[in-house]
């Protein structure tokens, strides 16, 4: 195995500090330290907000941040939270999130956020401190190979040893983070580079040989895709987070309107087209709607748009959309064919590709007429009507968590940015919130990071202040288990003026794990009970109302529907500080529908004992000539073009 750059560097004989500092003579520009150059580079890149925590190996950079610095610095309480806050800020605003942390444990703490951003394609720059050049490889205090550690979970990583390289590296990092498939870029900044002298100039010439993301698709594949649309009688648009990153909501809706195809989404793509659009069937997969999952399973053309055929979507991969031809549109060529081999692979930016594809479909319609999808929509609408999202009422007098989410959605400002942690509450949020805008939903999808919610909500709130004059309020829906992993960030929310509203669905258990234990482990609730009030006689451990109050937040508790409605009303009226509402909800509530991990989506359970997609329900309404149509479509896209 090849060494990482830091490992290789540590094996090279070191020059003394003076030799290293003066190995190049560059006098074109303003003389300053590397730390000052980092701050100036971020300013010249247009960065408006930086999150972070100081430490020994990054102190020169923090010394360069003062009252004259053009960006706002937000002090978090944990490095992982600083990364998640940068993620929330990036998703809410469309800008590159930035955080700055120290070396060693500070850098390793932020790796979880880096991996999370990498899985969800979030543009982010993470600047980490590193020990001096001569100390690398000596196991110096708070030394860690952060470049090597982040290689598998970052889009790119830099080790900077010379102050003169800082502006160029920051320019490249910013470009790499936001271009192509967005992602996190790590800049590991040695103390030698921070303290070294350099000559600053701007703009910088980037050196990125071989990095040329494809944005425009070849005309041949677009024509092939248009022909498949023309011969599809059960098409589905399967829309993922890549379409959100491309800001392609208008194009997705236009394609649906043009072709008549329904829209199903992954978790990160919720809201890309408003939920009140009749073409939107909701989320598909493990906890998706019956209509969305059923439509994909019975489709004859599946158009994957910025999606990656994730296992939580596909279930048993070989049983996923078994009768469908596949068009796969993605800016990352590594995703094409990774899990499902497409009939028409299209590499390019989603927004650009869809804009180029639609005129070709219109041409096909003009020549051959528009396919009749009446039968297809008849089947879909029967699922929509017969199997709406629903839930079971509690048997112990507590609140139904799904009801709480519905009430939150009904009472919220339509411009609200919704954030969630990870667990059952995350699924209920994506199911029962009525989304009306893209970029309105922020959640940890691919990595499923508990503790993501509160810091991401803080980042979104800071972003709302910076770009939307605070007119987009932020509601966090979290579970008591997920919330406790980063609850210390209430201090940052209060002191940094981020008036997030927190709906804590408190069931005193790790709800999603408990659900699996109920369904698959014979009700053996091993290590999932967080607190039993009847044993301690306490309101909770912790008592979240007292905890929030201790951090300067407004704290409310709701045990009944009347109390819940009043608490939501009060929370929506408070905009000068964070508000936490402790909703006491049913610990035995389940997320339905559900597909068991690794099972076929055909076996989706609507409610216990009800499997709508079994053959008697699902196949009767399929067009009888579907096989012939599929064969014809295959022949058309494989024939030689003039």
Automatic annotation (TrEMBL):
Ubl conjugation recorded as keyword: no
Cofactor mode of binding and number, as noted: Binds 1 Mg(2+) ion per subunit. Binds 1 thiamine pyrophosphate per subunit.
Coiled-coil positions: none
Domain Thiamine pyrophosphate enzyme TPP-binding: 421-583
Catalytic activity: 2 pyruvate + H(+) = (2S)-2-acetolactate + CO2
Gene Ontology CC annotation, any one: acetolactate synthase complex
Pathway as given in its UniProt record: Amino-acid biosynthesis; L-isoleucine biosynthesis; L-isoleucine from 2-oxobutanoate: step 1/4; Amino-acid biosynthesis; L-valine biosynthesis; L-valine from pyruvate: step 1/4
Single GO biological process annotation from the record: L-valine biosynthetic process
Keywords: Amino-acid biosynthesis, Branched-chain amino acid biosynthesis, Magnesium, Metal-binding, Thiamine pyrophosphate, Transferase
Protein name, as recorded: Acetolactate synthase
Gene assigned in the entry: ilvB
């Amino acid at each position: 195995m090849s060494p990482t750059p830091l490992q290789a560097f540590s094996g090279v004989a070191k020059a003394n500090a003076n030799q290293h500092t003066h190995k190049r003579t560059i006098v074109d520009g303003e003389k300053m330290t590397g730390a000052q150059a980092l701050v100036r580079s971020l300013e010249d890149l247009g960065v408006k907000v930086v999150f972070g925590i100081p430490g020994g190996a990054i102190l020169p950079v923090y010394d360069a941040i003062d009252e004259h610095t053009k960006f706002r610095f937000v002090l978090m309480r944990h490095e992982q939270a600083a990364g998640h806050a940068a993620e929330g800020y990036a998703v809410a605003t469309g800008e590159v999130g930035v955080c700055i942390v120290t070396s060693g444990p500070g850098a390793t703490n932020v790796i979880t956020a880096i991996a999370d951003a990498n899985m969800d394609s979030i543009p982010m720059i993470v600047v980490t401190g590193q020990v001096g050049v001569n100390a690398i490889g000596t196991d110096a205090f708070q030394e860690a190979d952060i470049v090597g550690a982040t290689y598998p979970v970052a889009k790119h990583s830099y080790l900077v040893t010379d102050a003169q390289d800082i502006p160029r590296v920051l320019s490249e990092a910013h470009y790499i983070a936001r271009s192509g498939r967005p992602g996190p870029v790590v800049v590991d900044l040695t103390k030698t580079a921070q303290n070294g002298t350099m000559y600053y100039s701007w703009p910088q010439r980037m050196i990125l040989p071989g990095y040329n993301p494809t944005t425009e698709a070849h005309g041949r594949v677009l024509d092939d895709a248009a022909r498949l649309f023309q011969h599809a009688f059960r098409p589905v648009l399967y829309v993922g987070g890549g379409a959100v990153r491309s800001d392609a909501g208008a194009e997705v809706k236009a394609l649906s309107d043009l072709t008549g195809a329904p829209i199903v989404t992954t978790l990160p793509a919720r809201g890309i087209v408003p939920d009140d659009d009749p073409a939107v069937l909701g989320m598909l997969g493990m906890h998706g709607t019956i209509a969305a999952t059923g439509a994909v399973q019975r489709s004859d053309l599946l158009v994957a748009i910025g999606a990656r055929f994730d296992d939580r979507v596909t279930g048993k991969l070989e049983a996923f959309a078994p009768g469908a031809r596949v068009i796969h549109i993605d800016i990352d060529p590594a995703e094409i064919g990774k899990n499902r081999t497409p009939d028409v692979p299209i590499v390019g930016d989603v927004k650009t590709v869809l804009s180029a594809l639609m005129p070709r479909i219109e041409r096909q319609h003009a020549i051959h007429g528009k396919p009749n999808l009446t039968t297809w929509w008849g089947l879909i609408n029967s699922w929509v009507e017969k199997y709406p999202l629903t839930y079971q009422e509690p048997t112990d007098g507590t609140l139904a968590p799904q009801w709480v989410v519905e009430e939150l959605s009904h009472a919220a400002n339509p411009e609200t940015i919704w954030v969630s942690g990870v667990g059952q509450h995350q699924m209920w949020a994506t199911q029962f919130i009525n989304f009306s805008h893209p970029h309105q939903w922020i959640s940890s999808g691919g990595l499923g990071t508990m503790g993501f919610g509160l810091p991401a909500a803080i980042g979104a709130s800071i972003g709302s202040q910076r770009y939307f004059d605070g007119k987009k309020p932020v509601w966090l829906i979290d579970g008591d288990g997920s919330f406790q992993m980063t609850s210390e960030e209430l201090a940052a929310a209060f002191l940094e003026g981020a008036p997030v509203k927190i709906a804590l669905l408190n069931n005193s258990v790790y709800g999603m794990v408990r659900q699996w234990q109920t369904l698959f482990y014979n009700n053996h609730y091993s290590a999932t009970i967080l607190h039993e009030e009847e044993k301690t006689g306490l309101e909770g451990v912790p008592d979240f109302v007292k905890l929030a109050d201790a951090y300067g937040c407004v704290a409310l508790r709701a045990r009944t529907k009347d109390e819940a409605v009043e608490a939501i009303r009060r929370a929506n009226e408070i905009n000068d500080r964070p508000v936490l509402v402790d909703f006491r909800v049913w610990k035995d509530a389940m997320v339905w529908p559900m597909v068991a991990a690794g099972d076929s989506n055909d076996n989706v359970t609507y409610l216990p004992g009800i499997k709508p997609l079994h053959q008697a329900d699902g196949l009767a309404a399929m067009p009888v000539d579907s096989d012939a149509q599929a064969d014809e479509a295959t022949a058309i896209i494989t024939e030689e073009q003039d």
